[in-house]
Write a structure and sequence with these properties.
The protein is mainly alpha-helical. It has six helices and no strands. The chain has two domains: 180 residues; 63 residues, no CATH class. The longest helix is centred in the C-terminal third of the chain and has 86 residues. It is rod-shaped, with a radius of gyration of 45 Å. The mean pLDDT is 82.
Length: 269
């Protein structure tokens, strides 16, 4: 590389034929062109590095927060659920930022790798032989181009690994949120079962009161009937008849209510 920013090649014709000399010059020009095209990915890798550093630091912080939530003294379900939802939103935001970065750079990194392979292919076609004191084209490219391509490939690989880590963390956190939600649902179901049992006991108490109330009214009717019969001249004791009828009436009322409940249960969906 000269001071004016240009690279110059000196091609010595050592008895080459016309087509051979033309192919040689063409390969040299292609090597230089593909080298410049391959280096277009380097600025993208340099800009992506601080962004990847920031995303990686934030992911490490979020992972540490997840570990802290596993401490034995943290059992507040409501607070834990809210914190996990917040962490899930932050991880989703990180995934979106990394995906945007990958969309911006993946094509450029792939193109740089393709051009780098073309450079190596053209160098192999030259079939160089070393001249003492003069670096070969392969040595020049290895010194000037390979580090830049390694930087691009490292940035690309780092993007992929970071995406896998974020996906694993996201999956783990979603699993934890799902487990916590299932625990809350189980508690809700247990509470509903408790209330249902209470309602059943209350219903049974009401049924007992209903039997007593209906039996009381029927016994009253029987008492009135007995008094009416005694007033009409029949030799009966209304109180005795009423007392004897009370157990029978209560049993009939209870059986009637049970039969009614069975019919309602059979008709229920």
């Amino acid at each position: 590389m000269h001071a004016d920013g240009f690279v110059r090649f000196v091609v010595r014709d050592g008895g080459l034929k016309g087509q051979q000399a033309g192919r040689l010059v063409q390969r040299l020009l292609e090597i230089e062109t593909y080298r410049m095209m391959a280096l277009l990915g380097l600025p993208h890798a340099q800009r992506a590095t601080p962004v990847l550093n920031a995303i990686e630091a934030e992911l490490a912080s979020l992972t540490s927060a997840m570990v802290e939530m596993d401490q034995p003294d943290r059992h507040d379900d409501a607070e834990g659920m809210a914190r996990e939802q917040s962490l899930l939103e932050e991880i989703t935001s990180l995934a979106a930022r990394l995906e945007q970065l990958a969309v911006d750079n993946s094509y450029r990194f792939s193109a740089s790798n393709a051009y780098f392979n073309l450079v190596n292919s053209r160098i192999e076609e030259l079939r160089e032989r070393r001249i003492q004191g003069i670096p070969t084209v392969a040595e020049f490219m290895h010194r000037r181009l390979t580090p830049a391509m390694n930087t691009c490939m490292a940035a690309s690989r780092r993007q992929e690994l970071l995406a896998e880590r974020i996906a694993n963390t996201n999956s783990l956190l979603r699993t934890r949120v799902g487990i916590r939600q299932e625990q809350q649902n189980n508690k809700i179901l247990e509470s509903m079962n408790t209330r249902a049992a209470q309602q059943l006991r209350l219903q049974q108490a009401v049924e007992g009161l209903s039997v007593v109330a209906v039996s009381y009214y029927l016994a009253g009717l029987i008492s009135y009937g007995g008094k009416a019969a005694k007033a009409s001249g029949l030799r009966i004791e209304p109180d005795l008849v009423t007392g004897l009828a009370v157990p029978v009436v209560a049993l009939v009322v209870w059986l009637g209510i049970r039969q009614l409940q069975k019919k309602v249960k059979r008709k229920a969906p």
